[in-house]
Amino acid sequence: MNYELRARDGDAEGDLLEVSLGPHHPSTHGVFRMDVVLDGEKVVRLKPVFGYLHRNHEKIAENTTYLSSMPYTDRLDYFCSMTNNWAYALSVEKLAGLSVPERAEYIRVIMAELTRLLNHTCLIGFFVQDMGALGTPLMYAFREREKILDLFEELTGARMMCNYLRFGGVRCDVSDSWLQRARQVVENYEPFLDEFEALIAENEIVLARTQGIGILPRELAVNASITGPMLRASGVNYDIRKVDKYGIYDRFEFKVPIGEHGDLYDRYMIRVLEMRECVKILKQALHDIPAGPFVDPKAKLRGFRPKVGEAYGRIEAPKGELGFYLISDGSPNPYRYRVRPPSFINLTILEDMCLGQRIADAIIILGSVDIVLGEVDR
User: Fold this and answer.
1) Do 306 and 96 form a contact (C-beta atoms < 8 A)?
2) What is the pTM of this model?
3) pLDDT band at 26 (very low <50, low <70, confident <90, very high)
4) pLDDT digits (tens, 9 = 90+) for 64-106
5) Alpha helix ranges (H) inside the chain
6) Which of 342, 363, 172, 370 is nearest to 271 (CA)?
7) What are phi and psi of 358, to 5 degrees?
8) Which residues contact 22 (CB under 8 A, 6 or more apart)?
């Protein structure tokens, strides 16, 4: 951490402190830096600095075949490879006009909601740790996350870089025994959520550090194109699962939790409530999943050349709207490949939420955005 004293405008004395926080500070959630100007402990200016993890994701995809890009999407948000895969597959399927068998649609929903559970669970563990509660909440979160990762590993051979979806379906089918273990994990998740919520939700330190802190006004959230739990915590009823009804989400009964104040506490509580809705969706999907093919037999993976055209596919990823914009010129590679990552867009209002807050609160506010730098920098 570097720092220097700065003078106020028109003041010869240097009484403002400029601090370069990161890129290796553990609370910066990855290789990320914040240049913060402080008046005492109060934040008067904040500039996010990122790009340390830039690796030409989009350009690489334009120079390889459509299918070869699927494993790269795992690395965008390494907590959420299943939903990354789905957003990309959905875009290619729109571009090529491919259909998806019903069983594969159910499997996709199951994978996406398990991913949402593990993402939100870990976010809350990190969020509380940013307040100084080292240990217990994060370990509780990681304990439950491991159960879901075990399911992913058994099915795909990988815990995090799953590379599981394919155009027109999924890579391999789920077995009856796998479905039974998934049902058991989902059944046990509700008691865990009760315990996790009882541990955190009414803790007086959590209440003091989160209520009325880091408020994101509804108008600013809409104007800045914020999506996901960040947007809903500010009181905007917008969930792409309800708006687009992609896949088979229109078959499931679930609510979209909405916040009132847009502060840190609302952003925490929205994740808790969304996990409870995830469990509802998972129970329905695991009960109703039909027999049948897991991939469209007409889907051609080798020599795949979509017709000339363009398509944008998007899903409600755990962090917000994740979209892929593709242009095909009829060749094996995309002519243009563009990612709309929620972490990057949601990070753009960090300064607005931090101005006037204490530096210690700025760390928690950053944590509440829920970013993964692999997705921000690409």
Assistant:
1) yes
2) 0.87
3) low
4) 999 999 999 998 888 899 999 999 999 999 999 889 999 999 9
5) 57-61, 70-74, 81-96, 102-130, 136-156, 176-200, 204-210, 218-223, 229-233, 240-243, 264-288, 342-347, 350-354, 359-369, 373-377
6) 370
7) -75, 155
8) 1, 28, 31, 32, 33, 34, 49
